[in-house]
Amino acid sequence: MRSLIHSRRIDRKALSLVLALGLGAPLPVVAQEAPTVSSEAQARDRFSEGNLAYDLGEFDRALKAFSESYRLKPLPAFLFNIAQCHRQLNNPSRAAFFYRRYLALSSEEPANADVVRELIAEMDGKARAQEEQRRERERFTRDRELQRAREQAALAEARASQARLAANPSATPVAAQEKNGASEALAMQVPEGAVTTQASKPWSRRWYVWAGVGAAALLAGGAVWVATAPNPRDTTLGTVGR
């Protein structure tokens, strides 16, 4: 009895399969894994792409390709190529960093170690020069902004002075006040003994007093001589008829 039931179940499965084929129902597909490219092969492809871009002078693209190559397979040789790209892109500090990493991570001293050390020294020098130029630009920008601020402050003060004068025309200008103040300060700096006045001398030592006395004496003497002279001279103008 059990064998009969089992055989009937097998027949039903077979019948169902036949019906499915007849109706065109899709058969279950067994999933198969697609072949994957190894990381080493991908790194090799990126490396070739980077070399081509470097030869074409497309250093940004080459840098990206070499960086991807190193992520896929971290070989120290890729670091040297990355450093070369930074050197061509005028990034000396980054170039020096990757040159040093190339030497540090190499299992043995590379054949171009001496050249790499020279490149490190060259990149360090350029990095210092760039830093000095950056600081000089910052100082120049700061000085220019300070000068501009001073000019704006002076312009604002001049406009404020004009506004005050326009509001009160009778007011003394600020410049005149400063000039008067400077004159007063200069006068205060003169020693007391340096300025002598006629009022500080006694009347007996004043020259114009004695000059006046002398002139009065001459006038008095002339009047006496005229009065006592026997034939006083005519002081009127002569005429043709006389």
Low-confidence stretches: 1-35, 194-199, 232-242
Helix content: over 70%
Quote the beta fraction.
under 5%
Q: How many helical stretches?
A: 8
The run of helices and strands is HHHHHHHH
- Rounded mean pLDDT is 73
The gyration radius over C-alpha positions equals 57 Å
Distance between the termini: 202 Å
Number of strands: 0
- Structural shape: elongated
Structural class: mainly alpha
Main beta sheet, described? none
Blueprint of the fold:
Layout: H1 2-23, H2 39-55, H3 59-72, H4 76-88, H5 92-105, H6 113-167, H7 174-189, H8 207-228
Helix pairs in contact: 2-3, 3-4, 4-5, 5-6
Question: How would you explain this protein's 3D organization?
Answer:
With 242 residues, the chain is mainly alpha-helical. Helix content is 71%, strand content 0%. The chain is built from eight helices and no strands. The protein has helices at 2-23, 39-55, 59-72, 76-88, 92-105, 113-167, 174-189, 207-228. The radius of gyration is 57 Å and the shape is elongated. The termini are far apart.
Characteristics of this structure?
single chain, 242 residues, mainly alpha, disordered N terminus, disordered C terminus
Give a quick precis of the structure:
With 242 residues, the chain is mostly helical. It has helices at 2-23, 39-55, 59-72, 76-88, 92-105, 113-167, 174-189, 207-228. The protein is built from eight helices and no strands.
